[in-house]
Structures are given as structure tokens and as C-alpha cells.
Design brief:
about 600 residues; 5 domains; Thrombin, subunit H; elongated; six-stranded antiparallel β-barrel; alpha+beta; single chain; about 20% helix
Length: about 600
């Protein structure tokens, strides 16, 4: 038997070891090297101008690449008290061609072979040198809490052009966070254009991308890889993407600056794969595909975004069904989405997703009347019922946009309530598209007679003008209350839903003055809002109505009002000078607008 010593003494052994060493060197790509090493930390106190270093990022594919840099200096207290920045110049043919790239934020920066920080800021626009800011590694690995940095919001270090002009400062010469690409898959540019101001207001760069199949190795992240946050997934997706700075066991640190500085969050984390890097003198960016979820983003603070590998958090399922009728039949298509559950993000994401799912649908066409129904199911509460009709307009604004804005408004009111967090279990929406424009304007109205007795029922006729059609008369009735005093003058309001809502609930309906004091009461108010595709006739009597939280108490005696007026929470109580005594409505199948006031004398 050959011993280890006799084997090593074989003349062929050195050749074999040389081959193995060469093969190992080929296998140790920068990704593997970065993954295997536990680099020393370089304190900020040891950073000096002129130090040479390097950083890692991905320009295309899964290949982590190394590029050089040189320290220009340190900007003390730049982000805030004790929040400094290292200013560096990137070097090398690739970065000198692309400049600082959107999606490069979080790239780990090494000086003297030690981990010094994460690339996070860029200097200027149309600059000739790629100059960037680096967040020191101590702040990246141990990001300060929201409280420690004074509950700040996402920093905007640059000045908008208009503000720069007024202040006398040149534009494009300030350090700003490297843009985080917000990758839209399944969304057309026309969709993003409708929400461009809101997207830019969040500090995002909208980029089109795609999705990639999940791989077993997706969770094997190393410094220099790409990862991000999942905001929407399903039949379309919205994701952010930036570079991983470090991985400590199951903890992932990325971006080097905040996503939105939301603090503690629960957002799915996904692996991102770079197709290519688009070079632009204005703003270079990475074009990425987003793979499956690999964990949870748990913290979004001033100096880093952090998360944990593992199961992702639950999202809000949204099912959107479009039914198109006409042409002798009907067609139906259902889309499924899942949205992140966050009060500052969900309302906008609902609007963008609903608008895209509707308008980028093969069953959709401009110039049709859209009838929206659905519900928002809330944990522990009654569902919010959705119903409204939207007619096409004469402007260039897409006909489906009002539906998206309506859903955004409802979600904003739910998430902005001051009572308790709104936990949305699911959303289901159904939109029926009917050919043609169905809308109506109230032109005139009259009572069958100008006087009535207590308890009498009167006919009310209304002249309606449809869009492009002959006027028509609709008829309904109102009943005079039995207890009304003779000689009283009543007011008959013939109107659309919005005006009757305001007349019967006063300023409490619009949020000023009194209002609900709990989520159940808010849901009750939302569900009692009248629908815009109906003609309403309301009979008002000159008796006060007390609005107490979500309750309407008509015909309240003045003595009781004087007692209740001293309620310890005056913001939840309001008194209207009239009471809605009876109401009737006529469904018309299209939006109604207009108002007519009539007087009725009680003999």
C-alpha cells in the first residue's frame, strides 16, 4: 500500500498540484472571493485623501465585477450630526464610460483591502468625472434608528432646478442619493406617465424590466450581488433594485442609503438579475429582471436597507376582472396581483396596478362607460363596498384613470385613519365596460303642485339631458312627514350623489369638523356614500340634524342639542340646520350631474 509520503514523493505530484491550483484559481471568481472572505473593517478615522481602493457591482449577467476608485476626502456631518460621507472618484474604462449608475448604490467599497463603506451618493449631472459618496461601513452595518436621526424622511441632498435658480446656486452640483431603479414589468410607458409626478416625488427612477424564474441559488447572496424590494407581483410586478453591501449569516445589508426611510417595515426581498447597464450622459441605469422572493426587508433607514433571508411577508391579493359587453356577446378576463401592505405605498400601488390592469387589457377600449364594483376585505371589520360608474370624457386623459384615482382615494382614507392600522386581507374589483358614453345632466325639475299636506306623497318630475340624445323625463315621489307643522316651507333637492352627500352630512362628510371616531365608523361612512349613477331627490325639513361620529340624528330638539354640544370631543359632533326627511333615487346606468332646488309649502 502506498503511504501519503510515498505519494507526495511521486515526481508527478507537483504537476498535479499545479493543475489543481490553476483550476481552483479559475473557479474563484470575484463573487466567490467576496463571499468567502470576512474582510476587516476600516474605521472612518483611518480614511485619508489619496487612498486607493476598489468596489464590486454587476454590470451584466451574474458576474460581479471590480472597479477602482480613489479617496478625495471626507465630508464630516454631511447626512446629519455624526453622519459623514467619504468622497471618492471612480476609475477604470467601464465606470468612466457609464458614470455612477442607478442601481449601483450599496456596492461594497474597500480601501487598503478593508471594507470601508457602501457606495450611496453621486455628484452632479453631466459631470466629466464619476464622483460618488460612500457611506462609512460603521453606519451601514449599524444603521441609526429613525429616532436617532430625528425622524427624518428620505434625504434630498440636491436642489431642484427652480429652487436652485431662486437661491443663486448652480444646479446639478450637489451630492444626491444614487437613484434606486423602480423596475416595472408588465406596465406600458403610458401607464407610468399618468403617475410620473407621484413616482418622481418618491425619488424613484422608473425603469422597464422583466421577471426571471426562481433558482435554488437565489438565496446565496454575496457582496456585490443585486437584490431589492418587491412592491407588486403577479400578472405585473414593481420592484426596486440595488447592490448588496454585506451578508452576515441570514442578514442582508444593501443600498447604502434609504429606500424611502420608512423605518421598520415588512416588505418582500427578491433577487435581481442584471441584463445590461444602459449608459447615459443624463442617468445611466441597470436593466434588470427580478426573480422570486428570498426573504423580508425589515429596516429602511438613513444609511442602509437591511433584511433577513427566509420566508417573505404576506402581501395583499388584488383580483381585477374586466367584463366587456357589446357586439352581440360579452368577454371576460381576470388578473391577479399581490401588493405590499404599507400605508404610504399601498394607495399609489393600488392606483397604478388597477389602471394598468384595466387599460393595458385586450378587452379595454376608450370611449366606453365603465361600471366599477367590488369590495375591500378588512380583518376584523365589515368589508368596504365599492360601486361607481365612469363615463368617457372629452379630454386626452384616459377614461380608466378616474377608477384608479377612486381606488387610491379609498385606500388613502383607510390607511390614513387615526384609529387603528387597516389590515387588508384581500381586494376584489369588477369593471364592466359598456359601449358608448352614458351620462346625464339635470336640466330642470318640478313638483306636481306647490302645496301639500302633512303625510301626503308628491310626484317629482326631472328633465334629464343625456349625452348626445333627446331629453327625457324621469319621475319619482317624496313623502311629507306626518308631524310637520302647517305653514312650514320645505326644501326639495334634486341632485347628483355628491351634492346630496354634502347636504345631508355637512362638512363632516368631507373630513372637516366632525367625523368618525373609529375604523368601523369610517367604513360605515364609506359604505353609505351614494352612487354617482343615480338621480337623487331629497326632502329637507327646517329641523336640526345632529351628526355624531358616523350617526345622523335628524329632528333633534334644541334642548337636547344644547346638552350634547358640550360633548368632550367637539370634533366628533356637528349640527346641521336642516334634516333629510325622505329620499328617493332612480338608477340611470351612467354618471349624473347637476342640482335643482324647489320649495314646497305645507298647508
Amino acid at each position: 500500500m502506498r503511504t501519503a509520503r510515498s505519494y507526495l514523493s511521486n515526481p508527478r505530484a507537483p504537476l498535479l498540484f499545479a493543475f489543481l491550483a490553476f483550476f481552483a484559481a479559475l473557479c474563484l471568481t470575484p463573487a466567490v472571493l467576496v463571499a468567502q472572505q470576512s474582510p476587516e473593517i476600516l474605521p472612518l478615522s483611518q480614511v485619508r485623501p489619496g487612498m486607493q481602493g476598489y468596489a464590486y457591482t454587476i454590470f451584466a449577467g451574474d458576474q460581479i465585477e471590480k472597479f477602482d476608485l480613489e479617496v478625495i476626502g471626507v465630508l464630516d456631518n454631511f447626512l446629519g450630526p455624526k453622519q459623514s460621507i467619504i468622497l471618492v472618484q471612480l476609475k477604470g474604462p467601464k465606470v468612466e464610460h457609464t458614470g455612477v449608475v442607478a442601481g449601483m448604490s450599496g456596492s461594497p467599497v474597500y480601501l487598503d483591502g478593508k471594507l470601508a463603506g457602501a457606495l450611496s451618493l453621486k455628484l452632479g449631472v453631466f459631470t466629466k468625472e464619476p464622483i460618488a459618496g460612500v457611506t462609512p461601513i460603521q453606519d451601514v452595518l449599524n444603521p441609526p434608528s429613525q429616532l436617532a436621526v430625528g425622524q427624518v424622511t428620505a434625504p434630498e441632498f440636491g436642489l431642484p432646478s427652480e429652487a436652485s435658480t431662486r437661491s443663486g446656486l448652480p444646479s446639478g452640483v450637489a451630492l444626491e442619493p444614487i437613484e434606486t431603479p423602480l423596475v416595472f414589468s408588465g406596465f406600458q410607458p403610458a401607464t407610468l406617465q399618468q403617475f410620473a409626478n407621484q413616482i418622481q416625488g418618491y425619488g424613484f427612477v422608473a425603469a422597464q424590466g422583466g421577471t426571471a424564474s426562481s433558482r435554488p441559488e437565489d438565496t446565496h447572496l454575496v457582496a456585490g450581488d443585486m437584490a431589492g424590494m418587491v412592491l407588486v407581483q403577479g400578472d405585473a410586478s414593481i420592484n426596486s433594485a440595488c447592490t448588496v453591501t454585506a451578508v452576515q449569516a441570514d442578514r442582508v445589508i444593501l443600498c447604502g442609503h434609504p429606500f424611502l426611510n420608512l423605518g421598520d417595515v415588512q416588505i418582500p426581498m427578491a433577487r435581481s438579475r442584471v441584463l445590461t447597464t444602459l449608459s447615459s450622459e443624463l442617468a445611466s441605469t441597470k436593466i434588470v429582471n427580478v426573480a422570486g422572493s428570498i426573504g423580508t426587508i425589515t429596516s429602511d433607514h438613513l444609511t442602509a436597507v437591511t433584511g433577513n433571508l427566509g420566508p417573505p411577508p404576506a402581501m395583499i391579493p388584488l383580483d381585477l376582472t374586466l367584463l366587456a359587453s357589446g357586439g352581440g356577446g360579452s368577454r371576460q378576463k381576470t388578473l391577479h396581483f399581490e401588493l405590499v401592505n404599507h400605508p404610504k405605498l399601498t394607495p399609489l400601488l393600488v392606483a397604478i396596478t388597477t389602471f394598468s390592469g384595466l387599460t393595458q387589457n385586450s378587452l379595454y377600449g376608450e370611449g366606453t362607460t365603465l361600471h366599477l364594483t367590488g369590495e375591500i376585505r378588512l380583518r376584523g371589520h365589515a368589508p368596504v363596498q365599492i360601486e361607481n360608474t365612469f363615463a368617457p370624457g372629452d379630454t386626452l386623459s384616459p377614461d380608466g384613470l378616474p377608477i384608479a384615482l377612486t381606488m387610491q382615494s379609498v385606500f388613502t382614507r383607510l390607511f390614513a385613519n387615526t384609529f387603528e392600522p387597516a389590515k387588508v386581507d384581500a381586494v376584489s374589483l369588477r369593471i364592466e365596460s359598456v359601449p358608448g358614453r352614458k351620462s346625464f345632466t339635470i336640466e330642470s325639475a318640478w313638483l306636481e303642485k306647490g302645496e301639500a299636506s302633512p303625510g301626503e306623497t308628491l310626484r317629482v318630475r326631472v328633465l334629464l339631458r343625456p349625452y348626445r340624445g333627446a331629453a327625457r323625463v324621469e319621475e319619482t315621489t317624496v313623502r311629507v312627514p306626518e308631524q310637520i307643522a302647517r305653514g312650514t316651507t320645505l326644501r326639495v333637492l334634486v341632485s347628483d350623489a355628491d351634492l346630496l352627500n354634502r347636504a345631508s352630512r355637512g362638512f363632516a362628510f368631507s373630513g372637516a369638523g366632525g367625523g368618525p371616531t373609529g375604523l368601523d365608523q369610517l367604513i360605515s361612512l364609506l359604505n353609505r356614500e351614494r352612487r354617482n349613477d343615480r338621480l337623487y331627490v331629497g326632502l329637507f325639513v327646517p329641523a336640526p340634524t345632529l351628526l355624531w361620529d358616523d350617526k345622523e340624528l335628524p329632528n333633534i330638539p334644541l334642548s337636547q342639542i344644547n346638552v350634547v354640544d358640550g360633548h368632550p370631543a367637539p370634533g366628533s359632533v356637528q349640527v346641521l340646520r336642516e334634516s333629510l326627511a325622505s329620499e328617493a333615487s332612480i338608477p340611470l346606468g351612467g354618471p349624473v350631474s347637476g342640482v335643482i332646488y324647489l320649495n314646497l309649502q305645507i298647508r
